[in-house]
Amino acid sequence: MNYRADVGTGFRIMEAGPGRIVTIEPDGYFHLLFFKTGECRSESMRFSRRIYFPGQMLLLPRNYLFKATAVSDMKIVDMSFDKLLNRCDKLQLEMLVPICKSIEYAVQPVTMKKQIIDFLNLITECIESGLGCAHYHVLKHQELMLYIKAYYTKEEIATLFYPVIMTQSDFKEIIYSHPNIYSVNEMADAANMNRTTFLRRFKEEFGETAGVWIKKRLCQNILYECSNTKNTIKDIVYIFNFSSQSSFNRFCRRYFRCTPGELVTRVREGLVIREYESCMEEK
Question: 122 and 200: one domain?
Answer without folding.
Answer: no
